[in-house]
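User: I'll paste a sequence; please echo it back and then give the predicted structure.

Assistant: Echoing your sequence first, then the prediction.
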Amino acid sequence: MFSASIIRLNSLLISLCVLFFVTSAWADTLPQVQLQIGMHIVKAEVAANNESRMQGLMFRKNLEKNQGMLFVFDSSDLHAMWMKNTPLPLSVAFIDEKGVILNIEEMKPFTDAIHAATKPAKYALEMNSGWFNQKGIKAGDIITNLKF
C-alpha cells in the first residue's frame, strides 16, 4: 500500500512538472506586441487563435510589472472571460475596434465568475490585478498599436 502511494505521488509530480514546462514553453511561442496607453507601455503576449485564447494565462504563476496578454477576437462581440485554472489575480480591459477601453473588470483567481464586455469588443487585455487603476487608466482611454 505504501509503495502504491509513492508511485501515485511520483506520477502526480511528474505530471505537474511536464505541465509546467509545456505551459512555459507554450507561452514563449506566442507573438508579442508593445502597446501604449497614454504614457504607459505594455509588453503583451498575443492570443489570436482559439487555442491560445482558451489557454490564456491558465496555470501561470506570475506576470512581470508591465506585462500582459492581449486577446484578439475574430469579430467584435460581447466577449467574456473567466479565471478557471488561473492562479493570478487579474484585471481585464475590454477594448473596441478603435482601441477605446469599454470597461475594466477585476478577476479573482480560480473562479468561474463571468466578466464580460459592456459593448461589443474586439480585444481584451489582461494585466496584474489593479494595474489599470494604479496607472489611472479607465474606460474611454485609448490603447494604441493594436495592429490586428
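Residues 45 and 111 are 22 Å apart (CA to CA). The chain has a mean pLDDT of 87.
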